From TrEMBL:
Its cofactor is pyridoxal 5'-phosphate. The lineage of its organism: Bacteria, Bacillati, Bacillota, Clostridia, Eubacteriales. This is Histidinol-phosphate aminotransferase. It catalyses: L-histidinol phosphate + 2-oxoglutarate = 3-(imidazol-4-yl)-2-oxopropyl phosphate + L-glutamate. The modification N6-(pyridoxal phosphate)lysine is found at K210. Its EC number is 2.6.1.9. SUPFAM superfamilies: PLP-dependent transferases (SSF53383). Signal peptide: none annotated.
Amino acid sequence: MSRFLSERLMNVTPYTPGEQPQDQKYIKLNTNESPYPPSPAVLDAVSRAEVEKLRLYSDPACAELLNTAAKHFGLRPSQIMPGNGSDENLFFALRAFCDEEHPLAYADITYGCYGVWCGLMHIPSRIIPLKEDFTLDPTDYYGLGATIVLANPNAPTGLALPRSAIEGILKANPDNVVIVDEAYVDFGGESCVPLIDQYENLLVVQTFSKSRQLAGARLGLAMGNEKLIADLNRVKFSLNPYNINRLTLKAGQAALEDTAYFDTTRAAIVETRGWTKQELEARGFSVLDSRSNFLFASTIRKDGGELYKKLKEKGVLVRHFDAPRIGSWLRITIGTPDEMRALLKALDEILEV
Ligand code: PMP
């Protein structure tokens, strides 16, 4: 242990990212990326001329991207802030709207980074257990007196709340910011973006990592009331004014504009998710009703950890979740149809059907 580490930092448990093997050995179904390449428009946008401009800083205001995003979402540019992945926007939001006296409320289970950031910034956590069936009771979040973050659809369960349920939470917490993390919303969730002009306490965070094929470019958008966005900009311009690099700005803009490619790829994933769920159920798995680009599944036929290991040996990488309250589950990203057939074949061999 380094003698230079402060006591405070030693209490921080960092997030463990999913495995990112740097070879092509695996069918990679572990970190909810898109199995499809970025839109051809992205390849054109990230041009040689743009690479040559890398000697210059990027636009700190991200004006072009914001104009495109504003048109796309029916908002004003001043209601949007781009982040280096939605992770950065979520972190900025916690920095802006929570501190040692202002806790953050979130579900158990949900995206692991919320708790990690609370640890790092000494923000007290108000952890609210999901129900036995992994659904979330919106009334648990009424009048909490805390900033709230909800992943909708949730991760790793994939379950989604209707917009009306989030509206109930917004109304019941008028003096607190409610952050809705919509990383997976494009695969069948109901976005809260249409509520932005009605609720000044609503901050929606979306990402380009899942439905827009740009996980490696790192781009997300925070969208909300102008005052909330001004607060986020205060944090951004204090920490990292050039947070979005030139290539990502171009890539993001092109991805947003290619709505046809977006629609085709997300429809393909939703369709593949449908039959993969049925095939898993036919093999005795319990599979939650996912509105995301992954399935959360478990079976009494074999321990999740054992399945994860055996699948990995066969070249299929999934994510294993294990906790006393939930048991042992696999989170399986939806890949191409061929990748899912390979997963099912590997499972059949492991389970000896
Ligand atoms: N929110 C949720 C619920 C996630 O699962 C993830 C990543 N898998 C993120 C946010 C962060 O995504 P990114 O930083 O790539 O936008």
